[in-house]
Specification:
Layout (H helix, E strand, L loop, with lengths): L3 E7 L16 E2 L2 E2 H10 L4 E8 L4 H10 L6 E5 L4 H10 L8 E5 L7 H14 L1 E7 L5 E4 L2 E4 L6 E9 L1 H13 L8 H5 L6 E4 L10 H16 L7 E14 L5 E2 L2 E2 L5 E2 L7 H13 L5 H4 L12 H14 L3 E10 L9 H12 L6 E6 L5 H4 L3 E12 L4
Parallel strand pairs: 1-4, 1-6, 4-5, 7-11, 16-17
Antiparallel strand pairs: 2-3, 6-10, 7-10, 8-9, 12-15, 12-18, 13-14, 16-18
Helix pairs in contact: 3-5, 8-10
The protein binds cytidine-5'-triphosphate (CTP) and the ligand C[C@](O)(CO)[C@H](O)COP(=O)(O)O.
Cytidine-5'-triphosphate (CTP) binds next to strand 1 and helix 3.
């Protein structure tokens, strides 16, 4: 094991994120950005000491967050400075074991893979200074008084963090920079000014720094990729199917697809027993791997007694869309000997479209009898099935 100290920077203002507050507190998936970043290091056995540089005014908020999202190891909180470089220096001053390499990492980079931390640590032990960086994929233009120049892309690398250094080297580099009032945009540049070699460890294009609002979408998509085990690029498609049955009984309204259909009997259930909307909700939950409606709205919970299934479906749809999915299309079949469904099909289709906030063209609703066979044929109950295709464009 090649142990190291990690200094995580979170004392910025996140101005470019336009969120009106420090981006470190914005929730990405199930936890705030800074908690994702901290937990990468917390879960790495090689990380010996964890220092979190925070804005003095946000210190108590950060302490609360650490209580709400507890980590295995203790976190040493340090007040940062006006510029990123001042915050790094404050972190360096707080390091206890100065024999270990120091990793300096942006709190705004939550997706650094653990294997890269290890590769970086091994390199830092060997070379004293190393950073993660990726080859530039765009053509880079330099604007000057004479016009534009095109740089030789084959020599260009985009610097990431962590950047890792032997303690004495990075401390000296920072002290020298402070004396000459030099401010660099990363820590490796301060070591380069000492004419010392800095090694590159090839980073990952997933190790993004969340800087602008667009980066939040990328981060959400990345997390949902991880949850769903997606491999590769491009839009992600997920398919789900649903099936449900409710018994027909006297004294209940017959609600199908959110529309009350005049009939001598109605559907029996804990909620309003809307067999079609339940089926669609199940298909949507199935597509995103979130179980079924029984898991989300247990029929033992009095809160859902006679519940409007339209509201339940909208709640399910919020879960789907929060994960970045849109409806590709949906095809549903109501299996009923009676009542006659044809007069209500268009109304049902429009109602489902309005519940899901999509155009009706993405939805098909049809009905069939079972030629008087089985429980549906004997008019004892009504069944429904649905197939749903979801698309996540944030993956492209
Ligand atoms: N005085 C500062 C400035 C920045 N940072 C941290 O350095 C990292 C990289 O900086 P950046 O992404 O630019 O974050 P902000 O400075 O918060 O963003 P902005 O420049 O848009 O205000 C962030 O984790 C940020 O919290 C810091 O600790 N102290
Ligand atoms: C350190 C860094 O993340 C390397 O790419 C970057 O330079 C930080 O810049 P910022 O303007 O402070 O976000």
């Amino acid at each position: 094991m090649k142990k190291y100290t990690a200094i995580i920077l979170a004392a910025g203002q996140g101005k470019r994120m336009l969120a009106g507050r420090n981006k470190q507190f914005l929730k990405i998936g199930d936890q705030p950005l800074i908690c994702h970043t901290l937990s990468v290091f917390d879960q790495d056995e090689w990380c010996e000491e964890l220092i979190l540089v925070t804005n003095e005014r946000e210190r108590s908020q950060m302490e609360e967050l650490l209580k709400e999202y507890p980590l295995r190891q203790s976190v040493h909180l340090v007040d940062g400075g006006a510029e990123r470089q001042d915050s790094v220096f404050a972190g360096l001053e707080a390091v206890r074991n100065r024999e270990l390499p120091v990793f300096i990492h942006d709190g705004a980079r939550p997706f650094v893979p653990q294997e890269l931390l290890h590769e970086l640590s091994v390199t830092a032990y060997e070379k004293k200074a190393a950073l993660l960086a990726v080859p530039v994929t765009d053509t880079i233009k330099q604007k000057s008084n004479h016009g534009l120049d095109t740089l030789d892309r084959s020599t260009l690398w985009a610097a990431q963090t962590p950047q890792a250094f032997s303690y004495d080297l990075i401390y000296e580099a920072h002290e020298r920079a402070r004396k000459s009032r030099y401010y660099g945009t990363d820590d490796a540049s301060l070591v380069e000014r000492l004419d010392k070699e800095v090694a590159i460890v090839k980073g990952s294009y997933d190790n993004i720094k969340l800087t602008t609002p667009e980066d939040l979408h990328k981060a959400q998509a990345y997390l949902s990729n991880q949850r769903n085990g997606k491999v590769g690029d491009g839009p992600m498609f997920r398919v789900g199917q649903g099936f449900d049955v409710h018994q027909l009984t006297e004294g209940r309204p017959c609600i199908i697809g959110g529309i009350e259909i005049p009939y001598e009997k109605g559907l029996l259930g804990h909620s309003d027993a809307d067999v079609l909307l339940h089926t669609i909700a199940d298909a949507c939950l199935g597509a995103i791997g979130e179980g079924d409606i029984g898991k989300h709205f247990p029929d033992t919970d009095p809160a859902f007694k006679d519940a409007d299934s339209g509201k339940l479906l909208q709640h399910v749809w919020d879960i789907v869309t929060e994960q970045g999915y849109e409806l590709g299309n949906m095809d549903c079949t109501v299996i009923a000997q009676a009542p006659k469904m044809a007069p209500y099909i268009e109304q049902i289709r429009e109602n489902i479209a309005s519940l899901l906030r999509v155009e009706p063209g993405r939805i098909n609703v049809k009905a069939t009898t079972t030629e008087k066979l089985g429980f549906t044929g004997r008019k004892e109950g009504i069944a429904a099935q649905a197939v749903v295709l979801l698309q996540n464009n944030q993956h492209s």
